[in-house]
Design brief:
CATH superfamily of the largest domain: P-loop containing nucleotide triphosphate hydrolases
Largest sheet: 6 strands, mixed
Strand content: 15-25%
Order of helices and strands: EEEEEEEEHEHEHEHHEEEHHHHHE
CATH architecture of the largest domain: 3-Layer(aba) Sandwich
Structural class: alpha/beta
CATH class of the largest domain: Alpha Beta
Bound molecules: guanosine-5'-diphosphate, zinc ion
Length: 323
């Protein structure tokens, strides 16, 4: 039988088949997945093959195969530094909830999120929330950000989780996809989820706040089916997911507008800093690349590796080195 992993609690997995039957499954033997040293062999979002064990009192399953993942996101395991914990796999869209000033979401935070999404190979969508509270200045700022990010190719949506404005467009964007939501605490994630499906009541907020001191509490990601034909992965208690191993000369590849120009730089290993005949810097001078993007790129480039490895937080707690 084949199914999709909806929940993992360490040794048990809830697996749902296409027919909609849910089985509690265990893993058969040991899984070694090439190239990943992970603390958990099977993750939420995995497609697995399993056999039923009907000898027990209740029917359970034994997972014997994991289908190849199209992507997966991880956080570092603190205790076993070489190992990672796979938070979720096979994600179609990472949504970042952005507020202009309540709380402020900096372009630095946005850009690091986008770099992470690029590195994981997952489509990222920006969702500007609380548009009902905008005055003219906030509207200008939001439209400017939308211009910058649209130009690079990122979809931008404008919503009010409180009034319901824009929610239908967001639903259309989520339909038939597996989605995850991120953003600073207070941007409106809980309100938004409630607007998408009243009563769903994801635990993101309560648990992450309750355990905000203990980062690695034993809470696990979980997938939910929404009524309008979408799936959402909730990550209670999971504070960070980050990029594992990125070289400095790779960073520019995760800025799509830089990557597109890379071939036109004089040096093929151009870091777009001091090098002569750099197409990225020329585009910057011509206002074809946003200064904020370039500055955030430099910040990430110059920061220590930790800086851009693991400082995007699923619950928005931003303990990075920003002033
Ligand atoms: P979370 O920490 O991301 O889950 O944020 P919450 O959903 O708890 O929202 C934080 C605060 O912002 C709450 O007081 C919400 O009522 C409020 N809020 C959320 N979305 C909106 C919105 O679209 N408009 C307005 N005016 N307030 C909102
Ligand atoms: Zn260059």
């Amino acid at each position: 039988m084949t199914g999709l992993v909806y929940k993992s609690t360490g040794s048990w997995y809830l697996v749902k088949t296409e027919e909609g039957n849910v089985y509690e499954c265990r893993i058969k033997g040991k899984f070694r997945i090439k190239g990943i040293k992970s603390t958990n062999p099977v993750a939420v979002g995995d497609v697995v093959d399993f056999d039923l064990d009907e000898t027990a009192d209740t029917v359970t399953g034994l997972i014997h195969t994991i289908h190849e993942r199209k992507n997966y996101i991880v956080r570092k395991s603190v205790n076993l530094s070489k190992q990672v914990h796979i938070i979720a796999s096979n994600i179609d869209k990472l949504f970042l909830l952005v507020t202009i000033n309540n709380p402020p979401t900096t372009t630095s935070f946005i850009d690091r999120f986008l770099v992470t999404a690029e590195a994981y190979g997952v489509e990222a969508v920006l969702v500007f929330n609380k548009i009902d509270t905008f005055n003219d200045d906030m509207l200008d700022e939001q439209l400017y950000l939308q211009f910058i990010y649209n130009r690079i190719g990122y979809k931008c949506l404008r919503v009010s989780a409180a009034s319901g404005k824009g929610i239908d467009e967001l639903k259309a964007e989520m339909k038939d996809c597996v989605s995850m939501f991120s953003g600073h605490s207070g941007v409106g994630k809980s309100t938004l989820v409630n607007a998408l499906q009243p009563g769903l009541d994801l635990k993101t907020k309560e648990i992450s706040e309750q355990h905000s001191q203990g980062q690695h509490t034993t809470t696990f990601a979980e997938m939910f089916d929404l009524d309008f034909g979408a799936k959402i992965i909730d990550t209670p208690g999971i504070r960070g997911f980050g990029i594992v191993d990125m070289e400095k000369d790779e960073l520019g590849d995760y800025f799509p507008e830089f990557f597109a120009l890379k071939d036109q730089c004089k040096f093929n290993n151009c870091l777009h800093k001091e090098e002569p005949h750099c197409a990225v810097k020329e585009a910057l001078e011509n206002d074809e690349i946003a200064w904020s993007r370039y500055q955030n790129y430099l910040k990430m480039l110059e920061g220590d590796e930790e800086h851009y490895r693991s400082d995007i937080y699923a619950d928005g707690k931003n303990n990075d080195n920003e002033e």
